[in-house]
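Sorry, explain these tokens?

***
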Amino acid sequence: MPATAELPVLARTPVPAPWRPGPRAAAGPDRRVGSIAGVTPATEPPAESDDARMMVLVYSDDVDTRSRVKMAIGRRPAPDVPRVEWLECATAAAVISALDKGGVDLAILDGEATPVGGMGIARQAKDEIFQCPPIVVLTGRVADNWLANWSRAEAAVAHPLDPIVLARTVADLLRRRRAELTTS
């Protein structure tokens, strides 16, 4: 039997404990997310109140398109606009039903959706729904903006979606809608 060499015993190095937020990193109800260093709290001008919300309906038969719209706009499209609450719809019937119930402040409709496109839904909503909220139509290309005009949508944004243009358009329409609701 050959002699076996003993392996050297390696010194154990301590494993760092998992990260836990310290007292400065913990976000309380009155603290906002801090800067990169976590020292200076970032200030965000509140819109009327932190509890204010505006309902935005997004319609597309494609879940990826709905997701891209939500990512482009985020939770708040501009600092002076209330936070956005999302209502996703995948069918034309769901869109008409939601708009008919009320409570929707803005609708974003995919003009390229099938079997019913967002432009047709926009035209129907403007014809049938009393005090229909503003509508943004997502068109297949810039040359299709005349169709968005036919549908009576307040704005059109072409694919591929530019997050800055979409967020700016949505923020502008939400400002107008908020002003409209406060004066009525």
